[in-house]
């Protein structure tokens, strides 16, 4: 039974980890919530631009709470979760790429941004793929850091389980969750053991950048879903892990 699939999830300790736990429960897995990201708002708001690019639900919620409005800018969101949050804030979303990645957003906007001012508002760990790609397309790009992503104190119980061979799946939702998992393991003196434990489990990465980060540290990624959403990641990882544990 898939009930034996203990699946670690690293989402921030807010409604996202709660929804992730509910989803894993509904899939018959045993969730191991171990938030690897905490949000530290900077209080900054985007500068004016012909295009404004938002890359996360968190960024939208912080801006909405500050009373920011996109005005006449073309509002671009990296994927459906960000776009839904923006619509919930009462904003009109003009552009969402087919591929929910920085590269996908660059490809989507490149034909239209030559000579335009583009404001990118995101975390302090945003990929340079987005800003460099837009500049290469001829845009005048400015970046505003809306929040910093830090590792919560005490994070890492999933690393202990992995090192002990007691984890069947791990669901990484960004490169930073990989880095913070490994940092937490290193603090405990079990980095290599945790990597070995992951490599005996099903490792899911939400997209190619996260997969590449994991691979660069010697972690074998088993699953990358076609759609870069947590639901697709969880379903694919649990379905992949479950047959191994059928009795």
UniProtKB/TrEMBL annotation:
Gene Ontology biological process terms from the UniProt entry: uroporphyrinogen III biosynthetic process
Sorted UniProt keywords: Lyase
A GO term, aspect molecular function: uroporphyrinogen-III synthase activity
Pfam families referenced in this protein's UniProt entry, alphabetically: HEM4
EC number: 4.2.1.75
SUPFAM superfamilies the UniProt entry points to: HemD-like
Domain Tetrapyrrole biosynthesis uroporphyrinogen III synthase per the UniProt entry, residue ranges: 20-233
CDD domains per the UniProt record, alphabetical: HemD
InterPro entries: 4pyrrol_syn_uPrphyn_synt_sf, 4pyrrol_synth_uPrphyn_synth, UROS/Hem4
Gene3D superfamilies (UniProt xref): 3.40.50.10090
Protein name from the UniProt record: Uroporphyrinogen-III synthase
Originating organism: Haloferax gibbonsii (strain ATCC 33959 / DSM 4427 / JCM 8863 / NBRC 102184 / NCIMB 2188 / Ma 2.38)
């Amino acid at each position: 039974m898939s009930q034996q699939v203990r699946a670690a999830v690293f989402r921030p300790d807010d409604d996202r980890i709660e929804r992730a736990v509910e989803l894993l429960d509904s899939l018959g897995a045993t969730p191991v919530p171990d938030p690897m990201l905490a949000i530290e708002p900077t209080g900054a708001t985007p500068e004016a631009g012909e295009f404004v690019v938002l890359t996360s639900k968190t960024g939208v919620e912080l801006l909405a709470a500050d009373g920011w409005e996109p005005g006449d800018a073309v509002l671009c969101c990296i994927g459906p979760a960000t776009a839904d949050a923006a619509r919930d804030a009462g904003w009109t979303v003009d552009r969402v790429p087919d591929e929910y990645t920085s590269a996908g957003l660059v490809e989507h906007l490149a034909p239209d941004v030559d000579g335009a001012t583009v404001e990118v508002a995101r975390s302090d760990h945003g990929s340079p793929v987005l800003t460099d790609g837009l500049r290469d397309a001829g845009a005048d790009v400015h970046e505003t850091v809306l929040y910093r992503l830090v590792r919560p104190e005490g994070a890492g119980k999933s690393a202990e389980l992995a090192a002990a061979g007691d984890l069947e799946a791990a669901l990484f939702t960004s490169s930073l969750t990989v880095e913070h998992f490994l940092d937490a393991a290193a603090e405990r003196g079990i980095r290599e053991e945790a990597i070995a434990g992951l490599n005996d489990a099903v490792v899911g990465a939400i997209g190619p950048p996260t997969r590449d980060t994991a691979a660069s540290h010697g972690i074998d990624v088993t699953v990358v879903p076609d759609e870069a959403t947590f639901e697709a990641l969880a379903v694919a990882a649990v379905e992949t892990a479950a047959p191994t544990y059928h009795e």
